[in-house]
Structure formats: C-alpha cells, structure tokens
Design a protein that fits this description.
385 residues; 2 domains; two-stranded antiparallel sheet; 13 helices; binds nicotinamide-adenine-dinucleotide; binds zinc ion
C-alpha cells in the first residue's frame, strides 16, 4: 500500500491517513457466526463491554452473546442494552456507559463494542474516546447508514444544547465490520435513509454508481440483490477516499457535506419526524435546484437527480421546514461551523460537484426561487410524505 490512501482487498478496505491514522473496514458476511474469527481478532484477550439498542438486541443479541461466549473467556465480557433513538444520543447516555465500564472494572486495555446503527456507534464511540482518556472501540454496523457512512469514518458524538452532534471526538475505530446480512431485517425506511447518503456520494463522485441506482432502485430490498455488493463496496470506497486526506476535517470545504447544509436544520426543525437520510435527500433536491438556477446543471439533470431520490423512496421536499427563512438560517449556521465560509456543495453534473464559498452568492431571492421550483415539482410527483 502507498504511504497513505485507501487500499481495497476482497474483504474490505484499509485506510492510512497522511497523519498516520490507520484502520480497516471489513465486509464480513456472517460476522456473528460462532465459527467466524474476524470479530474475535479485534477483541483478542481483552475485556469487552458490548452495547446494543433494544431492537438490535432483540434481533441479534442472542447471536452476539453466543459469539462472545465462543471466543472470549467466561467473565471477560458483558452485553448491555442501551436506549437508542436521537433523543438518547446525549452526554447522559455517554456517562451511563462510562459508569457501567467503571463498575465492571474496564481498564485502558478494555474494548467497547457497539452493535447497531449510527446512534449506538456515535454514543459508544464517544464513551470509548473519553473513558480513561480513550480506549479501543469496535463497531459492528447493522444499518445501511452505518455501513456506508458512520462506520467508515472516525467521528463520534452526541446531541447537546439543541444542536445535533454538538459534542464529540474524532476516535478512529479499532475495527469496523459490515455484514450485509444485517440489512435483511432493516425496515424499508432505514434502507432509504442509507440510499440518501449513497446518492450523495454518487452525485458528487460517480456517474456509474448513479446509473446503477437508476437501473435498480430496488437495491438492498431483497436478499442477494444483483447490485447490492457493488453498491455497498463502491459507496464505502468513495466515502473512505473522501475522508482519508482530511480525517479530522481540518479542511472545512468537504464534498461529503453535500446534502448536509440545509439537512441538519430540516431534521432538527421537524423534531426528527424527518430522519437524517431523508433530510439529506431534501437538501440534495434544494441544492440541485440552486445549481440549476445558477446554470451549473440543466433542468434534465436536476430532474434526473430528484427523480432518483423519489424512485428510492426518499422525500425531496417538506413544506413545513423548507421555508426560505429557515433554510437561510441553516446556511448561516453552516457558514459559522465551516470557519465563516459557506462551502455549499452543489453538483455541476452527475458525478461532479463544486463549492459555493460565499453566503452572498446565495441571496434570499435565489433560495426563494429554487424552493418555488422544487415546490412546483414536488406535488406533481407526490414526493412529500
Ligand atoms: N459519526 C458519523 O460520522 C456519522 C455519520 C452519519 C450519521 N451519523 C449519525 O448516525 C445516526 C443515524 O444512524 P442510523 O441511520 O444508523 O440510525 P439508528 O442507529 O437510529 O438506526 C436506525 C433504526 O434501525 C434499527 N436497526 C438497526 N439495525 C437494524 C437491523 N439490522 N435490523 C432492523 N432494525 C435495525 C435501530 O434500532 C433504529 O431504530 C444519526 O444520529 C447521525 O447523526 C453519524
Ligand atoms: Zn449524513
């Protein structure tokens, strides 16, 4: 492997960043099968505290316990069920996990394992980042969002002071494992949320991935779907490549922020009625209409992108939260998060995107016009859930 970069192999990807951070993301079918050594390799001879939300525990908790008891010494591991849901992604949950760890005698040699989606991995990852100033953390990613996004990066965190992911840490995983088998039990809406992040990657980087999704909008909806492997692998790879040179987000102009300028406000303002991946889809649709008004893409390209989002079961518009005032405020808050530059990502084709760096370049009149275009498109196609 080159000094830094992302290397693909049949079992997943290895990343080494320019500042020397290295980790793997494995694609591991049957990860909890008692004969599968992969996960055990990351836990070897250490005390392990595993955490899962109630739903994941109900579905996979018995498999996890069977697995850990097959590979680890009796008394050296425990599984705890923690409340998940965005309202539980809090410092209180992190403190509870740390208290459990302290009580069970977990020392710096120990491992915290999260079995679940982005919420479990964000909470447990943050606990692992601060417990004893940082211990190992392994994620077994059970949602599509976690497999293509949360699970491939180094960010952990919780919501605080009315703001999503206000507190957190960059804490690279000791191991991160994606078993496509978990997706079989994932509700349709959660699959769509993951596809929102995947469309994001396709629009900014990869026209072929985009065309594959257009041809097969039923991807990940039946076991062993023809394009599932390609879409999962390619999405992971694109995300890893985008993150690698900028793991700690020193450069605040990030292409992967496509869908994440208006999205966070839409998600929060809706009281989480709109899920994260859905807010990404709506943001993509708004950004495409802005790009069309700016002459960066034509109407047909804009319609192809919003058409794909709809075909995948994603919303493209939400009248309650998509008001010019609210979206303008969202731009301002992105501006302040991104070091007083807007860095709004908009497509200039399918598979390619550019930044709009200054707030003044998106005047209220432009935003209002783009929203009106989107509102005019949405009812026709019944996009609003
Ligand atoms: N750290 C990062 O880089 C990063 C990146 C993107 C998103 N996030 C965060 O991730 C969170 C969203 O993650 P998510 O979409 O995975 O949500 P989630 O963790 O809430 O999981 C979604 C739902 O699916 C259920 N579930 C999980 N796995 C299942 C399975 N295999 N079968 C059936 N049900 C299952 C969960 O119980 C939950 O109800 C947000 O809080 C977001 O801010 C973090
Ligand atoms: Zn996201």
């Amino acid at each position: 492997m080159a000094r830094h970069g992302v290397a693909a192999d049949p079992d997943g990807f290895s990343l080494r960043s320019p500042d020397g951070v290295a980790y793997r993301v494995d694609i591991e079918p049957g990860v909890l099968h008692p004969a599968n050594p992969r996960l055990a390799g990351y836990l070897a001879d250490r005390r392990v505290l595993a955490f899962a939300g109630p739903t994941v525990d109900r579905l996979y908790g018995a498999d996890l316990r069977r697995y850990l008891s097959a590979w680890l010494a009796p008394g050296s591991w425990d599984v705890h069920v923690i409340p998940t849901g965005e309202q539980h992604k809090t410092m209180a949950s992190v403190e509870r996990i740390c208290a459990i760890a302290k009580e069970s005698g977990l020392d710096r040699h120990g491992v915290m394992l999260a079995l679940g989606g982005g919420i479990a991995s964000d909470i447990v990852g943050f606990a692992a980042a601060v417990y004893a100033r940082g211990i190992r953390h392994v994620k077994v990613n059970t949602t599509l969002v976690a497999q293509v996004d949360v699970g491939v990066g180094v960010k952990t965190g919780v919501n605080a002071y009315g703001t999503k992911n206000m507190l957190g840490a960059y804490h690279p995983p000791h191991g991160s494992l994606n078993d496509p088998g978990f997706l079989a039990t994932l509700p349709r809406r959660e699959i769509a949320c993951g596809l929102g992040e995947i469309v994001k990657m396709a629009v900014i980087r990869d026209a072929r991935l985009f065309a594959t999704l257009e041809r097969d909008p039923g991807v990940f909806q039946r076991p062993g779907g023809e394009h599932d492997d390609y879409v999962l692998r390619r999405s992971m790879e694109l995300m890893l490549e985008e993150l690698c040179p900028n793991l700690r987000e020193v450069d605040l102009a990030r292409l992967v922020d496509f869908g994440h300028t208006f999205g966070p406000a839409i998600e929060t303002d809706s009281g989480y009625r709109i899920a994260h991946g859905e807010s990404v889809a709506i943001d993509i649709a708004v950004s495409c209409h802005l790009a069309r008004r700016l002459g960066l893409i034509d109407a047909a390209t804009c319609a192809r992108i919003t058409g794909l989002l709809r075909a995948l079961g994603l919303p493209v518009y939400d009248p309650a939260t998509c008001t010019p005032d609210r979206l303008h405020a969202a731009m301002r808050s992105a501006w302040s998060r991104r070091g007083r530059r807007l860095h709004l990502v908009v497509p200039d084709g399918i598979g390619s995107a550019v930044f709009i760096d200054d707030l003044e370049d998106v005047p209220d009149s432009l935003l209002t016009a783009a929203l009106a275009d989107l509102a005019a498109e949405a009812p026709l196609v019944g996009a609003v859930r």
